[in-house]
Structure formats: structure tokens, C-alpha cells
Amino acid sequence: MAVRKRLSPNSVLQLVLVAFLIITLPLLLALGFATLKVDGLSRQSREAVYGAVQAIQAGRTIFEKITAMERSYRQYAILQDPALLDRYQEQRKEFRAAFALFANTPFDRLRTTRLRGLYNHEKALNQALLATSPADPQHGALLDRFVDLQQQAREIPVESYQVALREAQSLQQSADHSQRLLIILGLTLLPGTAALAALFTLFITRPLSQMDRAIRQLGNENLDTTIAVSGPKDLRELGDRLEWLRQRLLELEQQKLNFLRHISHDLKTPLTAIREGSELLNDNVLGSLNTAQMEVAGILAQNAKALQRQIEELLRFNEYRFRPRRDYIPISITKVLNKALSDHAIHIKSKCLALVSQINEGVILGEEGLLRIIFDNLISNAIKYTPHGGNIKVSSGANGEHYEIHVKDSGLGIPEHERRKVFEAFYRGNSSKRSNEQGSGLGLAIAAEYTRHFGGDINILESKSGAHFRLRIPLYKLHKKGNNLRNTKTSDSENGSIQHHEYKKQ
């Protein structure tokens, strides 16, 4: 880990520059390789063309010089003029110069036995001519040997052309080979460069994604997970700052929770005294009360209970917000849900509400006490905002990998702009202001927080009338030999029950 940190760039800019250099380096190498290949082919073709032209010109010059040498010497043999012999010697020097130029051409293949034979033949002929008198009968036969030299000289341009043709073919093969190499190099470098670009993009975007998740984590008040950002030094330092902020927020939340605990403890004693005093008054222990006094005592007792309940809800909500997730046990959600509905039967009857429930069997991993609180809050919320004589429908069952509970009421519903806010602590929308029953604004926030502890969620769905809450919790599936406990949606006649209740005041 220490070595990895030492090799890691110190900044995002440095990482981008390193990525740019590494990605462009193969392309630069390929460009250099292609340049060298093209330069080599260009040089080879230039040398081939120059050598071919030079060889053909030298071959023609050799043939012309041999013809001129023959003519000058024949004239000398007839006229016996020394000037003609000097001209022959000058032409012979030009022949040897042309021969030397031809022999030094880049075409090594031209240095064949035929070329050496031509040179030796001319040399031997010259020595024989100088050693024989023009009046000698054999002198004419020596002159006829110039015809053989001319015939050999005629073949030199033809051989030069053939050699040039072979060089052109070799050049074409080299060009084709270089082309294939460049194509293979391009096909190899393009995926490699794309892979390097994707890899460095991941290196650059991964720490940014980690920071984004960390900020969202802090925004969602998820303070249990440690924040760690990898990548360049500056981003790692920024991640350390976010981790420090998380720890600081965690300390502040713990201080707030401790403060609330102390406040609640300090409030319990006077609140208990108020409750006991109001109950003594209601029970006429201290003497008979008139109607007005009984009404005041009832108000005191009712508000004392409400205050105690709100304090307990506030403490419970803050305690579970930052409680680490536990290893929960399998729970039959059907029994818990039916018990919650049974507990609210009196409240439903008092408002003359019609309750329709359709509960299907399901098992989840959870805690029965927290499930009871979730269901109580959802059902009590539906009762609270359903008008007198309205109806409430509760249905549940497995849906894929989740167990869903739907709670619908016939109240005013929740405006779309308030649907995300109703799960925030202490938020009470316009619907709650129109309700006769005022709450603390913690019920739905508590239900949402507890549901998240089980890995589920609560949403508000579209409804033609009233509010429609959907609670989803992952199903618990246990597979054992000889025992397969798997929850699926069953028919109402097997594992579910449909109940219809109507409560009216007598």
C-alpha cells in the first residue's frame, strides 16, 4: 500500500499529463516507425532509379566507345597515321572510365562473369593489337574480335534493365511488407490505446465517483460507512477531509442524542408529577370536581400523555437513525401486520371507517418491535387523514424478491411536491394542517428510517383519491434439504385472508 501511494500522482493534473503521455507514446512510436519505413523505401527507390539510369547510360557509353575504338584503329591500320592511334588510345581511356563508372553502380549483381570477361577481352585485344604490326596477316583477325566486344556491350543495357526490373519488384515487395506491418501495428495500437484511455479514464473518474458517493452519503445522513477516496494525493486528502467531516457529524449527532436523553430524563420527573396529579383529579381523589374542572383535568392528562409519547418517539427516532445494522431473525410479517390492524380497531370504529384488508403470507429478516412501529405509523397516518365514514384498504404479498404492503386511504391525498418531504423529521404538510388530529411529524420519518434498516423502502404511489403508501422489504428465502421455505404470492384461499370491517357508532 505504501509503495502504491508513492507511485500515485500528487495531483489530478499530473495524472492527466501522465495519462496523456502514456496514451500518446505508442502512437508516437508508430508514427516514428512509419516514418523510418517510408524513408527507407524512398531511399531504396531513389537509389534503384539512379542506379538503373546510371547503369543503362554507362552500358550505352561502353558500346559507343568500343565502336569508336574499332573505327579509329581500323583507320589507323589502313592509313598508318599516328594521330589515329592516339585517338584510339584516348577513346580507350574513355571506355575504361565508362567501364569503371558502370562497375561502381549500386547494382552489385551487374558484376557478373560476363562483365569481367568483357574487361579482360578488351585488355587482351589491346595488348595483341599493340604487339602485332598492321601488315601482319593475323592483324585482320584481331580486328574482327571487336565484333565480339560489341556483342557483349549490347547485352549490358539489357542486363541492366532486367536488374532494374528485379529491383523494382523487390522494392514493391518491401513496400507491401511495410504496408502489412503498418496495418498490423495500427490494428494492434488502436485497441491498446483505447484500453489505456479507458483505464486512465477509470483512474480519473473513480475517485470523483467515490467523492460523489461520499457527499451523497453525508447528505443522506448515512454516517456509518467510512469514507475512503483513492487516486492522486490531492483527492485522497480531500477524501480525508470528508472522513473528518463524517466523524465530526457523527460526534455532533451523538452529542445531540445525549442531549435529548438528558432533557427527556429531566422532563420525566415533572411530567410524571403532572400526569399523576391530573389522574388524581380525574379520579376525584382530592374531592369532587365540577364539569369545568373535570374538563381542565382531562385536558391536562391528555396533553401530558401526548407530550410523553412525542418525547419517546423523538428519542427512539434519533437512537435508530445511527444504530448499526443488526443480524435480524426471520419473522412472519403476516402476524405482525394483523396485530397492528387489531390494535387500531377502536380508533377505526370511532371514526366509522370501513377497513378492507388482504394479507398474504410472507417471511422477512427483521425485528418484530420495529415492524410493529412501522405498521402502526402507516395505519395511524391513514386513519388520521381519512374523513369520518371513509375507507382504508391494506393489502400485502410477495412481489418478486420483495414483500410489499400497500396502505390506501380515501382522504385528501398528498400533493406531488410534498411526497418526498413527508418522510423528513418534523415535516407536516398542508394535509396535516387540515386534520383535526395533530402529530409530531415523526411518524413517517420513523417508518422510513426503520424500513431502511431492513434494506427496504417506502414510497408514495399515484392514486386517484387519497394517499397510497407502498412499503417494500426484501423477502427471506431459506433453502434446506427436505425443507424449502420460499415465499411467493399465493391465493387468498391458501395463505391469505380478506377481511372487510365496517364500524359505525351506535
Layout of SSEs?
Layout lengths: L1 H6 L4 H68 L2 H22 L9 H19 L7 H81 L13 H50 L8 H31 L7 E4 H11 L1 H6 L3 E6 L3 E4 L1 H17 L6 E9 L2 E8 L20 H5 L8 H11 L3 E5 L6 E7 L3 E3 L2 E3 L11 E6 L4
Parallel strand pairs: 2-4
Antiparallel strand pairs: 1-3, 2-10, 4-5, 5-7, 6-7, 8-9
Helix pairs in contact: 2-3, 2-5, 4-5, 5-6, 6-7, 7-12, 8-10, 10-12
Quick structural summary:
The chain has 506 residues and is an alpha+beta fold.
Task: Describe what this molecule looks like in 3D.
- With 506 residues, the chain is an alpha+beta fold.
- The protein folds into three domains: 2-200, Four Helix Bundle (Hemerythrin (Met), subunit A); 233-319, Helix Hairpins, CATH 1.10.287; 327-502, Heat Shock Protein 90 (2-Layer Sandwich).
- Helix content is 65%, strand content 11%.
- The strands form three sheets. A six-stranded mixed sheet has the order 6-7-5-4-2-10, covered by helices on one side. It has a two-stranded antiparallel sheet with strand order 1-3.
- The protein is rod-shaped.
- The two termini are 77 Å apart.
- Mean pLDDT is 76; it is low at 479-498 and 500-506.
